[in-house]
Amino acid sequence: MIVATAVCPSPPLLLRELTGGRDVAADLRKACEEAVGALVAAAPDVIVVLGADARSAERVRGRIPVSAFGGPGERVPTAEALPTSLAVARRLLDDTGVRVPVEMGTIAADADPAETARRGRAVADRPERVGLLVMADAGARRGLRAPGHLDERTFPVDGAIRTALAEGDASALLDLDPALCADLMINGRSALQAMAHARSGAPVAGPRLLYADDPFGVLYLVAVWPGDRR
Q1: Which of 9, 154, 160, 223 could cross-link 139 (Cys pair, CB 3.0–4.6 Å)?
Q2: Would you say domain 2-226 falls under CATH 3.30.450.20?
């Protein structure tokens, strides 16, 4: 049973030591910590993290490779390094003081509908109380200095994702077109659709959108969906 779901983006700048003297990610980090706090407040038996990545993997373990992101500290061997989405999730969980077991996995950004459905339903079918943390960025083509430069097509698609998260509309997330999202560098599409499968079939009461902005040309969204009441 899913008792709460949180959605956060995964820019490495959420690691405080990467921002230098001027903390350019302070507001975003605060919203993410609030979202993770909502998971903790729901008293889950386990927190399941699902992060978009280049490839899919389950039961992922490892260390946060701060130095690989340009920060201080020892070099973490590649074999021991968490992928970016899970590294950011791990730091958010640690900073929030999570004390329940955490299980982390990735889903490929290009995962097909069958895989997103399988991964989402696997979470929904778990018998224990689950807090689901989804690490997913929206469009990265929202400005001339954005990672993917500017593509005007991203604005209505990003807007649909924002509205779906704000309204708790899982079906709208399932309507996202994988090919178009790939073209627009909406790399969180697969994780969001897996979440939608996990939460489909029942309305979400009291969804909250905590953050929506694109300070670096990438749309970052933070949201909390209360538990499934089926």
Answers
A1: 154
A2: no
